[in-house]
Amino acid sequence: MDLQTITYVIVGLSFALYLGIAFWARAGSTGEFYVAGGGVHPVANGMATAADWMSAASFISMAGLIANMGYGGSVFLMGWTGGYVLLAMLLAPYLRKFGKFTVPQFIGDRYYSNTARTVAVICLLVASITYVIGQMTGVGVAFSRFLGVSAEVGIYVGMGIVFMYAVFGGMKGITYTQIAQYVVLIFAYTIPAIFISLNLTGNPLPQLGLGSDMLANGQPMLATLDKVVTDLGFSTYTTTPAGSYLNTFFYTISLMIGTAGLPHVIIRFFTVPTVKDARSSAGWALVFIAILYTTAPAVGAMARYNLHATVNTNVVTGGDLFAPEAQLPNEQKPAWMGRWETTGLLTFEDKNGDGRIQYYNDKSKDEAFLAKAEAAGWKGSEMTVNADIMVLANPEIALLPNWVIALVAAGGLAAALSTAAGLLLAISSAVSHDLIKGVFNPNISEKNELLAGKISMAGAIVLAGYLGLNPPGFAAGTVALAFGIAASSLFPVIMMGIFSKTMNSTGAIVGMLTGLVVTLFYVFAHKGILFIKGTEYVELVGGTNGFFGITPEAFGTVGAICNFAIAYLVSKVTAPPPEHIQHLVENVRTPRGSGMATGH
User: Fold this and answer.
1) Cα(522)–Cα(541) distance, rounded to whole angstroms?
2) Crossing angle (nearest 10°) for helices 402-429 and 151-162
3) Candidate from 380-384, 479-483, 500-504, 572-576 with smallest mean pLDDT
4) What's residue 212's pLDDT?
5) In a domain, 314, yes or no
């Protein structure tokens, strides 16, 4: 059976499974729609949380970023997994004890203000909509490559699948669908990694294979990769940070507190019966996430090695990488390159007309290396590889069986769709439960609220699809930006709401707005205001990364600091919270019971 047919069969079966589960677990009440009835077992919730969390960014992009950045890519591993530790220790059990459906509802009740609730909804919508753009784009990439349709058609199909199990199933349908999606994506991620680790090192565990000796030369895997990339003008794979050390630190913190503040993740801990179960499910989520996250460094390193070895045969033998016969002739390039060229994510340009592919760092600052490349007749790197293809193309690069390649396609789609569904539910509940019921129509019936939730979900899917089809100019960094927004706007106010009896509504509102505005200003000021100057960037903050070398992706930490500081100062010069709210905060932190926390 050919690759295309196998891919259609495996992806089709996975979609049938998701839709069957959604039909079986469809929601019949608002409690089931928003929090799956609050009765999900912590192990099942941990698995669903892992699928909700491990988005297209984790499955498709993270190993690609590690492959490109090497050691610098560790910010994603440390930031995202560290965020779950924060979530398990500092947020999940207390929010579960509070007994509400959504993050804005907690903020509105804790800060005794519909204005605070509305501002929280705005922050939630900005973060979630920004994040969902990347998921829909990932769906389009996976469909366009593996199912032979355009990215646009892929996004339409993805919208239809999510609509069928999210609108009718709500959180109940999404939860059990995400359990199935976790199983699909984790097998799709680990099975190719095991194959490749065996091929390169003889070790079936990729985590151990990364530190093992290579079969080809008997040398350590990472030492071999370091030599290859430095010989080709790239930075050392194992020691180069992501920018300055300050930026690396801020980037990691932004990802950590952004993880802890993302509403579609937090809402998962409202679905378990007790406070103990909320803490337990966070622990199980870490276990399930760790399976992929400990595999990712090996996937990234081995994909990088295999890519160089495909283009330059002397990578394997240890011979002269500049020898003309070592470079791959264009007419002999493997079929997988041609397939990815059609997507535009891999390109080749024969700059020196020799008919062979030179893949190296032509922007290296090492003048001796550049002189050597010029002496060899190289006129610039001739291949451009988008980091997003590294995981999806890895089985093809390693010449693995067709069924493994098809399984990876199903896994990539499962990762993108599971997170998209969680984000869309967070958006839907913010509109229907927090705005319509919480602010505009408190007396709405449960039936009409459920209908409003489904209509909001459908509208959110249409908006997500539109943004996936027409991504804004800053979409390249949407995932990191979403974490920065959550870190700077929602995380501080949730933390202060749990641990500070004196934080009042005015401080919380001003703090949220400050964090959101400061972060968005820096992002747009750094990237440039295209709407004003056409194709020219307008730098507003002293040039690229003008604030102590901090990149926009890392600026969420600065936004969070501003949020905490402004909220504290404002609360000190305004009226303290009512006494019953201060008792409520004490009650939330009492480590027993679950459900509605009250100050009376």
Assistant:
1) 7
2) 60
3) 479-483
4) 93
5) no
- Asked if residue 353 belongs to a domain, the reply is no
Structural domain range at position 160: 24-302+399-470
**Residue pair 407/10 in contact by the 8 Å Cβ criterion:** yes
β-bridge partners, 384: 347
The whole-angstrom separation of Cα 164 and Cα 154 is: 16
192/215 Cα distance (integer angstroms): 18
In a domain, 565, yes or no: no
The answer to whether 547 touches 558, Cβ cutoff 8 Å, is yes
**Quick check: is 170 in a domain?**
yes
| DSSP state letter for 435 | I
Q: Which two tokens stand for residue 96?
A: 């579960």
Contact by Cβ (8 Å): 501, 199? no
Two structure tokens written together for 356 = 């062979």
| Residue with token string 């579960």 | 96
What is the C-alpha to C-alpha distance for residues 357 and 593, in angstroms, rounded to an integer?
65
Task: Phi first, then psi: give them for residue 443, nearest 5 degrees.
Answer: -95, 10
Label residue 200 exposed, middle or buried (CB < 10 Å: 0-12, 13-18, 19+). buried
CA angle 279, 280, 283 (to 5 degrees): 90
Rounded Cα gap, residues 574 and 40, in angstroms: 42
Contact 364, 234 (CB under 8 A): yes
CA-wise closest residue to 512 among 490, 496, 495, 494: 490
Q: pLDDT by residue (tens digit) across 28-87? A: 556 555 555 556 788 888 888 888 777 766 777 778 888 888 888 888 888 888 887 887
Q: Which two tokens stand for residue 267?
A: 């809402």
The set of residues, in sequence order, having a beta carbon less than 8 Å from that of 487 and lying 6+ positions away, is 253, 254, 255, 257, 258, 261, 556, 557, 559, 560
Q: How far apart are CA 222 and CA 386, in angstroms?
A: 22
Number of domains in the chain: 1
CA atoms lying within 13 Å on the CB side of residue 295: 26
**Which of 5-9, 49-53, 330-334 shows the lowest mean pLDDT across its residues?**
49-53
- Counting Cβ atoms within 10 Å, is residue 122 exposed (0-12), middle (13-18) or buried (19+)? middle
Residue 514 pLDDT: 95
Q: Angle, nearest 10°, between helix axes 402-429 and 42-53?
A: 100
Tokens of 511: 């703090």
Residue 2's CB is within 10 A of a number of other CB atoms, namely 7
Structure token pair of residue 422: 């969680």
Q: How far apart are CA 437 and CA 506, in angstroms?
A: 23
CATH of the domain at 207: 1.20.1730.10
Q: How far is CA 188 from the centre of its chain?
A: 17
Sequence length of the chain is 600
The Cα 540–Cα 552 span in angstroms is 13
What's the CA gap between 111 and 96, in Å, rounded? 17
